Every structure is written in structure tokens, then in C-alpha cells.
Amino acid sequence: xxxxxLLSVMLVTTIFATILISLNRNIGGVSxxxxxxxxxxEAENVSDFALRNAIRNAGSVEFLxxxxxxxxxxxxxxxxxxxxxYRIGNCSIDSIRYSYxxxxxxxxxxxxxxxxxxxxxxxxxxxxxFNYPFLSLGSSKPNAFYLEMERLILFPWLxxxxxxxxxxxxxxxxxxxxTEGWSLISATIPWGGAFSRxxxxxxxxxxxxNVPPLAxxxxxxxxxxxTDDSFSLLIFAKLDKNINKNNQGTLIxxxxxxxxxxxxxxxxxxxxxxxxxSKIHFAVTQSNSNMLEVTKAFTPTAVIFNWWLGFLQIFNxxxxxxxxxxxxxxxxxxxxxxxxxGTLVGTSTGTxxxxxxxxxxxxxxxxxxxxxxxxxxxxxxxxxxxxxxxxHDRALMDAEMKSWHNGVMSSTLIKYIRD
Amino acid sequence: MMMTxxxxxxxxxxxxxxxxxxxxxxxxxxxSKVNKTFALAGVGMPVDSVCVYAGTNRVQFxxxxxxxxxxxxxxxxxxxxxxxxxSTAFGKALIITQDGAPLENLGYIFYIEAMxxxxxxxxxxxxxxxxxxxxxxxxxxxxxxxxxxxxxxxxSNLQVKCFFMNSYLKGA
Lengths: 419, 172
Prior knowledge:
The complex is a heterodimer.
Chain A: H1 2-58, H2 61-67, E1 76-82, E2 87-88, E3 91-101, E4 103-117, E5 120-133, E6 145-147, E7 164-166, E8 176-180, E9 188-190, E10 198-203, E11 208-211, E12 214-215, E13 222-223, E14 230-239, E15 250-254, E16 269-274, E17 279-285, E18 291-297, E19 305-308, E20 312-315, E21 325-332, E22 335-340, E23 343-349, E24 362-364, H3 376-379, E25 383-392, H4 398-409, E26 413-418
Antiparallel strand pairs in A: 1-3, 2-3, 3-4, 4-5, 5-26, 6-25, 7-8, 8-11, 9-10, 10-25, 11-24, 12-13, 14-21, 14-25, 15-16, 15-24, 16-17, 17-18, 19-20, 21-22, 22-23
Chain B: H1 2-39, E1 51-54, E2 58-66, E3 71-83, E4 94-98, E5 101-102, E6 108-109, E7 112-120, E8 135-144, E9 154-163, H2 165-169
């Protein structure tokens, strides 16, 4: 009898204990839910506080002087401010990340906050951007040279050396583009660039940009533009449709042997429009002097100049109404690929050898033909506007060429908040 | 007998507490998710082109925010919130889709019986004009079977005011 009572007491006690444990666990769960909710609210508030301060810092001269060398940006720059034990209530601010593109006016900030209480932890990150480029060029930024044509060149005939366009690629020794030819007010013009403030206009007679090769310091040797194993070129342009000359027009020309009777017509790499056949030509000359070429039918639609009496050239100030197009090529392992607006339009394949090495710099807006007896028509001067000319030292993939095009065309500034 | 009754009462209390806590958590997560999704509507879009469709139980809007990866995107997306008509063991679901595909993280929110939406302009006046919508009142009815009486589901209502934060940021 005693044993039976003992057993039933043990049984009832076990059941009772099990239920109590279950009850305790569930009650504990409620408190965890409540604690997490409280922490989330706290973290939201602290995150707002961190963002507000970050926005204030981002435009502060003192902050920029202290952490970002005065805030002179020519590119994308990121700075992370980390904190140790920066606690507010149950939260701690771990870090704030500042990202700028080109200027202190184009930035985004991102805050990282943690909160913990009684074994419950939550984290929150929030970000806010002001006039941040929608798509920065990022990895697609040209690394061999990049003429963004972002400089207003006022009265180039009046001021000596006031015709330079800097190279904004990340090369240690940047190239310089020199605008040549007559321009009454400015060779570059505002408010029409492809994701930029300026672009360069070409009159179809004598305007072009000369990019000389870089000279090595210790010898008379020159450093070539990297047109040997593998490379990519891209340039944005609007071709004038009304020019009545047949020389329209060379976009970009990297000469192979500009003084040689045969080779001067075979560029290391070149892109030009021929009015005679209404086609865009993309060409790369290989090291065996064989020129690979892709052509694509093309009809210019932009009115960049108005022509009075058939010869008087008046710049169309509403040129910005016409869309930009990009023209690019890649070369790798004997294959030339041609792109318009980032879309592959043709391929030409030769022997698997490098391209012809370049030693003579580059010409934008005309063919580089050296010697005597060449006319404007021979040099195929470009008529229209161009912008954002760049080169990579490798052949980009199709998607990368599209991304390059989109990156330039879509980079409008954006404001957004995510908190 | 007394002990047994006492234990049953204790067990029921435990289950009730568990039910309440899980529903509080679930409703909170649902509200946060919906609020965040609304807040990211219209990133990179003109303010009058954010909404594609604004019905009483379904809403669609445009944004350049990728709600799946939670990053800014080069592609414009269509985000849609609607109630799935198919009932499952977890009740009906609120589905949040991006370009037709449910979001990987919390694309389905279960135990929802109904969703009712009202839309407001920048002055807080109810509107049906897509271009004018700046906020929405979202009324959820959660429905979940009672753990101690599965035949009598419990319903909870939750009302959330969600703002198109990114439209306000643009000053519109």
C-alpha cells in the first residue's frame, strides 16, 4: 500500500513538474518577445540618431578636413567611422559608413547599430543617400585612360594651354587630351554630357582631341596605349545628320604607323562613321598587319549644327534633345567584337595573335595621318559631340560592355532612405 | 481529482501563453515587413509613377530597390502585396512578390485571413488617384486556430499606417 502511494505521488509530481517547466518556458518566451520588440524600437531610434549625425557630418567642413583630407574627391570614396563601446541605452552604434562620389554633395551614409538585453540581441542598419549616382561606374571605370571631358574650356585661343582635358583613370601617369582647332567660345559645352556636365563639340573642319603618348623619363622610348593582347574601347557620341561633307567622321583613332603609306589607314584600333556607305566601322589591326573590321549600318539623327546657306555653321543649342549613343569595341585572342549602345553588333575573327602595338598616342575626332598632302576629307573630321571616352586594358565581356554603357547613361543622381 | 484539475488548468495556461506570445511575435514581424516594403516603394521613381495598382486588397508599386537582396538595383522592379486565395494548414498567406516571384525572405506571411487597404495623399486625405498616393492604411485580420479548441479560430486585427517614405524624401 505504502509503495503504491509512493509511486502515485512520484507520478503526479513528475507530471506537475513537467507542466511547470513547460509553463516557465512559455512565460519566458513572452518576455523574450517583449524584450525583442522593445530592443527593435530602441535600435530604430538610435539608428535615426546615428543617421542624423552622419548626414550632418557628411557636409561638415571640420569632419571632411579631419577624416577625408578636406573632401576633395575625384572618384568614389568610402570611409567607415568605427566606434568602441558607443552605447546609448541598451544599444551601441558600431559604425557609420560614408560613401562619396566625385563631390561632397553626392553621398550616402549607412549606420550599423546593435542592441542587447537579457540575452536577446537585435541589429539594425539603415541608410540614406543624397544626390548619389544611381549607378556609379564601379568596376567598369576605364583603367587605361578615361577622358570624361568634364572641364569647361573657355576661350582656348585666348589663354595659353587652356585646351587640356585630364585623364581620370586610375593610371599612375595619366594621359592628357588637347583640344585642337578653332572654337570661338569653348571647345567643351555644358548641360549635354552623358551623365556629366560637359561634352566636347567637333565642327567637322578642324576640331579634334590629340592624346599624345606618354614619354618614359629615362629614355626616348614612349609608353604605348595598351593595344596589344586585349583591350576595350568605348566612346559616347551624337553624330550630326546635316553635315553635307563626305568626311564625317572619325570617333576614335589609335594609329599604327601614321606615316606609312599602307599602315596609316590601318589603326591599331579605330571607330568611325563613313557617310559614303552610312555605316559605323570598328577596326583593329593585328600584329601581322591584317586589319579586322566590323561594319554596321547607321543613320545619324541628331541636329548638332544648323547649316545656313549650305555652309554657315550655327551650333544648335538644343542639341541635348537628341539621345546619346555609345560605340565600343573589344579585342582579345584574335577576335574583334563591336558594340553599339552596349549591344554586340558584330564580330570579326583573325589569327590568335596580339593587336598592333600603339606608339603614337590617340586621336579623337579625326584620323591621325602624318605627312603632307592630306585633306580634311582624308582625315575624316568628326561633326557632332562626344563624351566619356575610355579604354580598359582587357576585353570586357558582353554584359560588362552593357554595364559600362548603362553605367554612364543611367547615372542620374538619386535620393533614397532605407531605415 | 483536484490535482488533475489543477494540472489541466496549468497546461491550458501554458498553451495560451505560448499562443499569445507567438502571435504577438508573428504580428509584429508581419507589420514590420509590410511597413518596410511600403517605405521602399518608389526609390528612383518619379513620385507620380510609384503606384501601379491600388485596390482594397491588393497593391502594386514600382521601385529600383531590390527587396530580395535589400540593395539598390539597376533594374526597375514591380512589388506586389496580396492575399493568397489558397488556404493551407497555416491559414491564408499574405504574399509579397518582386517581379512576380515571392521574396526569399518572408515572401509569405501566414495566418492572415484578410487585408484591407485605404490610400491617402500627402495631406492625409483619402484618395484613389494612383499619382497622389503617399500613404496607406493597412488593416490585417489574423486568424489562427485556438490550440485548446481548434474548431473556434481566434481572430486578431492589426492596423498599420505605412508611408511612401521615399516619395516624401523627394519633397512630394
